[in-house]
């Protein structure tokens, strides 16, 4: 006869959290920074598989951790937003509501499934002015953080966050770009500001309709000169 | 709540599977033509013309209900993505819904896949959506669009027209549909030249619409008193752009003067 055994809920949760954190820590980082004309997203990502994406007119997404898992969340988010915009109106699709949906989904998975999702996601919503920008960071257990001006997700998040905190000020896109790429490069190549291996996109508040735009390598070079 | 079973990259399929109540299922189709067909705004002239760098698309602004005018400023030419526009003829409600759905469909695909659908891909998707409307068309709620798009691969503007069953036909010169479509076609036949300039093509579109409005009661002519003019869009490598109202007004004044002098 097998021995029935007991594991305390605290222990289960702790183990799950450790497992998820380990998975996320292996990945590279993503930075979101507000600038005067919108929000900048920079991912340390040399592959052609995206970590940053457009969700809706004024909403962007970034995912760190396990690709298959945050890609699923990204697609779910686009479906959620497009359905809502079709059933109601385009103005009714908000970053807050999407961030809440992600939080619910991650929270439920964390407490009910064997394996938690090894992801951290970012939902950003660009407002008419910097005061109305929204940056939500949602972690693997569904906790949701309403960030101001800038944030970091992924592997070296804490280290990069403290660097951003020390150097950030609201300014132009060029300044935001130099700071973000400089921060990501800080650890391995302190002096290099090369656009190689970077995935960069902006939510441009001056645009009508769809504000999301990817910044390709050539354009990126101009900002970093 | 976000659900994650994969429904592909099509918004049209997604919304039909999640919200079937928004679409009539086959068992709910009325099984015979009603005695008096529903009264819906109907009748139009919309057209598309090939020019040197792409396509010019235009449409009048009138909606009718039988013999009365129900709307003076309705828009029948819609931008559906960066490089594509749709002009519609038929029952106003389903037509507008189709345009809205197509716009979301194309955007949805682009966001999920990370790249835009090919020109043929967009045209074929629209054909499927028109076919989906066939039961409604049998009841008199016809939806007939023209689709024009700049082909980013072939670097040319392309025009597609459709029939109610979802049949799709590519046009290489010009096409016009709606109750005034015949009049516009007659006019375009005389004016059209291969490789026209943008200015000439916009002029041709406005002249054809003017002729259609003269011959067809359901097509609205330029309303100089209320400043209501046709909608004209240019589709080229630069994307879809609206021709400014002032410019349309100036061209129409020349056309009207010419009519007066004849």
What low-confidence regions of chain A span 5 or more consecutive residues with pLDDT below 50?
none
| Spans of at least 5 consecutive residues with low confidence of chain B | none
Biggest sheet of chain A, strands in spatial order? 8-1-2-9-10
Q: Number of DSSP helices of chain B?
A: 7
Q: By helix and strand content of chain B, what is the structural category?
A: alpha+beta
**Rg of chain B (C-alpha, Å):** 19 Å
Order of helices and strands of chain B: HEEEEEEHHHEEEEHHEEH
Q: End-to-end distance of chain A, in Å? A: 72 Å
Overall mean pLDDT of chain B:
91
β-strand percent of chain A reads 25-35%
CATH architectural category of chain A: 4-Layer Sandwich
- Largest sheet descriptor of chain B: 5 strands, antiparallel
The CATH homology group name of chain B: Aminohydrolase, N-terminal nucleophile (Ntn) domain
State the helix count of chain A.
6
CATH topology of chain A: Glutamine Phosphoribosylpyrophosphate, subunit 1, domain 1
Question: Strands across the major sheet of chain B, in which order?
Answer: 10-1-2-11-12
Strand elements of chain B, count: 12
Number of domains of chain B: 1
Q: Mind explaining what this structure looks like?
A:
- The complex is a heterodimer of chains A (about 220) and B (about 260).
- Chain A is of the alpha+beta class and about 220 residues long.
- In chain A, about 40% of the residues lie in helices and about 25% in strands.
- Chain A has six helices and ten strands, in the order H-E-E-E-E-H-H-E-E-E-E-H-H-E-E-H.
- In chain A, the strands form two sheets. In chain A, strands 8-1-2-9-10 form a five-stranded antiparallel sheet. Chain A has a five-stranded antiparallel sheet with strand order 3-4-5-6-7.
- In chain A, helix 4 (about 155-165) packs antiparallel against helix 5.
- The longest helix of chain A has 21 residues, at about 65-85.
- Chain A starts with 8 loop residues before the first helix and ends with a helix.
- The model of chain B has no long low-confidence stretch (mean pLDDT about 90).
- By secondary structure, chain B is of the alpha+beta class.
- Chain B is about 35% helix and about 25% strand.
- The longest helix of chain B is centred in the middle third of the chain and has 22 residues, at about 90-115.
- Chains A and B meet through strand 3, helix 2 and helix 3 of A and helix 1 and helix 2 of B.
């Amino acid at each position: 006869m097998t021995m029935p055994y007991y594991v305390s809920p605290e222990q289960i949760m702790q183990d799950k959290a450790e497992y998820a954190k380990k998975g996320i820590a292996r990945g590279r980082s993503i930075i979101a920074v507000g600038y005067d004309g919108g929000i900048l997203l920079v991912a340390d990502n040399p592959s052609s598989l995206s970590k940053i994406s457009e969700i809706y007119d004024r909403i962007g997404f970034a995912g760190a951790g396990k690709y298959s898992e945050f890609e699923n969340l990204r697609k779910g988010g686009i479906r959620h937003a497009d359905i809502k915009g079709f059933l109601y109106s385009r103005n009714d699709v908000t970053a807050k509501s999407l961030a809440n949906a992600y939080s619910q989904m991650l929270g439920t998975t964390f407490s009910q499934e064997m394996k938690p999702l090894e992801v951290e996601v970012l939902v950003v919503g660009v407002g008419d002015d910097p005061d109305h920008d929204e940056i939500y960071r949602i972690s693997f257990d569904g906790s949701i953080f309403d960030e101001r001006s800038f944030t970091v997700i992924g592997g070296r998040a804490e280290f990069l966050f403290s660097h951003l905190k020390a150097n950030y000020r609201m300014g132009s896109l060029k300044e935001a770009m130099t700071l973000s790429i400089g921060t990501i490069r800080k650890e391995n190549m302190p002096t290099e500001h090369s656009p190689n291996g970077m995935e960069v996109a902006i939510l441009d508040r001056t645009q009508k309709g769809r504000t999301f735009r990817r910044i390709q390598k050539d354009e990126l070079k101009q900002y970093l000169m | 709540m976000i659900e994650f079973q994969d429904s592909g990259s099509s918004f049209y399929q997604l919304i039909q599977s999640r919200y079937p109540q928004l679409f009539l299922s086959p068992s709910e189709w009325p099984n015979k033509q009603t005695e008096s067909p529903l009264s819906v705004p109907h009748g139009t002239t919309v057209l598309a013309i090939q020019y040197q760098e792409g396509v010019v698309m235009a449409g009048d602004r009138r909606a009718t209900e039988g013999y009365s005018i129900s709307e003076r400023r309705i828009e029948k030419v819609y931008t559906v993505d960066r490089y594509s526009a749709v002009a519609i003829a038929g029952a106003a409600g389903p037509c507008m819904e189709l345009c809205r759905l197509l716009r979301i469909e194309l955007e949805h695909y682009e966001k999920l896949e990370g790249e835009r659908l090919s020109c043929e891909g967009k045209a074929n998707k629209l054909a499927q959506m028109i076919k989906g409307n066939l039961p409604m068309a049998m009841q008199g709620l016809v939806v007939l669009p023209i689709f024009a798009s700049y082909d980013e691969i072939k670097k040319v503007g392309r025009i597609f027209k459709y029939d109610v069953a979802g049949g799709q036909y590519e046009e290489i010169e010009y096409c016009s549909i709606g109750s005034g479509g015949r009049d516009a076609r007659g006019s375009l036949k005389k004016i059209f030249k291969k490789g026209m300039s943008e200015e000439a093509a916009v002029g041709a579109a406005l002249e054809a619409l003017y002729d259609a409005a003269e011959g067809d009661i359901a097509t609205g002519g330029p309303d100089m008193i209320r400043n209501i003019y046709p909608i004209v869009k240019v589709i080229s490598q630069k994307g879809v752009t609206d021709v400014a109202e002032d410019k349309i007004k100036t061209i129409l004044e020349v056309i009207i003067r010419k009519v007066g002098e004849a």
